[in-house]
Automatic annotation (TrEMBL):
Entry protein name: Lipopolysaccharide export system ATP-binding protein LptB
Nucleotide-binding listed as a keyword: yes
GO terms, molecular function: ATP binding
Database matches in Gene3D superfamilies: P-loop containing nucleotide triphosphate hydrolases
SUPFAM superfamilies linked to this entry: P-loop containing nucleoside triphosphate hydrolases (SSF52540)
Source organism of the structure: Deinococcus xinjiangensis
Domain ABC transporter: 4-252
Keywords in alphabetical order: ATP-binding, Nucleotide-binding, Transport
Keyword Transport (UniProt): yes
Length: 264
């Protein structure tokens, strides 16, 4: 059974169909990429999985549990966390504090525990500090523990977002363009981090990404969206050599020229 099983999901906004009858499965401990031209519906698809939008039709299940109708925080509790295209750290909080906020969904204390600083609150606070330290170490940011997140280098801010997502103890993490704005060295570091997320933490990874070198060398399977519909799916070499994918990215004439060069 797939860890994530999306069946026939559709979402429209007025007269625009942003996601059209998409079926998508993710195996446990996989590294899967979702790619496509700008406006293909990729981020909307992530928003449907994480409860930001509710699909007009279709089902979304994590480990057999239906997610449609759950709030985003309930989706996180079920085991899915994510990052976003644009960095969404709290700039006036330290790196450690940003991660501690991510851990909040797993803590048991309530409002009055925090107000009265009960034993449960103190236990939760200690546990959140410990998790933050572990995640900072895992992503290689321990030196920035007490630094305001806004002062971190750009690539490290991206890693901090990933660390915050991992602090929720997810089964599946969705990374929305994690390499955007990174230089080649930072991208290689990111590739190693994503592999470690799967290999060392046992967390399944799905990423939206435009860096095709990263996608083709990291992904075990790739799904291509175009105009909200699934255009292609398969192993990296299968997707790379799919004429429909070439046409979507390059246009009909350019794709024909590219394949003509390969034939020669």
């Amino acid at each position: 059974m797939s860890l994530l099983d999306v069946q026939g999901v559709t979402k429209t906004f007025g007269g625009l169909t942003a996601v059209n009858d998409v079926t998508f499965q993710v195996p446990e401990r996989g590294i899967i990429s979702v790619i496509g031209p700008n406006g293909a519906g990729k981020t909307t698809f992530f928003n449907l999985i994480t409860g930001i939008y509710k699909p007009d039709k279709g089902t979304i299940r994590l480990g057999g549990k239906e997610l449609v109708g759950l709030r985003p925080d309930q989706v996180v509790e079920a085991g899915i966390s994510r990052t976003f295209q644009n960095i969404r750290l709290f700039p006036s909080m330290t790196a450690e504090e940003n991660i501690m906020l991510g851990r909040g969904v797993r803590l048991k204390g309530g409002y009055w525990d925090a107000v009265l600083r009960t034993g449960k609150f103190r236990h939760d606070e200690a546990e959140a500090h410990k998790t933050a330290e572990l995640m900072l170490d895992f992503v290689g940011l321990s030196k920035w523990k007490g630094e305001l997140s806004t002062n971190l280098p750009y690539g490290d801010q991206r890693k901090l977002e990933i660390a915050r997502a991992l602090a929720t103890t997810p089964k599946l993490v969705l990374l929305d363009e994690p390499a955007a704005g990174m230089n080649p060295r930072e991208t290689e570091d990111l590739k190693a981090l994503i592999r470690a997320i799967r290999d060392d933490l046992g967390v399944t990874v799905v990423l939206i990404e435009h860096d095709m070198r990263l996608v083709m060398t990291l992904s075990e399977n790739i799904t291509v969206l175009n105009y909200g519909s699934k255009l292609s799916e398969g192993l990296p070499h299968e997707v790379r050599n799919d004429p429909a994918v070439m046409e979507a990215y390059l246009g009909r004439g350019a794709a024909a020229g590219e394949y003509g060069k390969e034939a020669r």
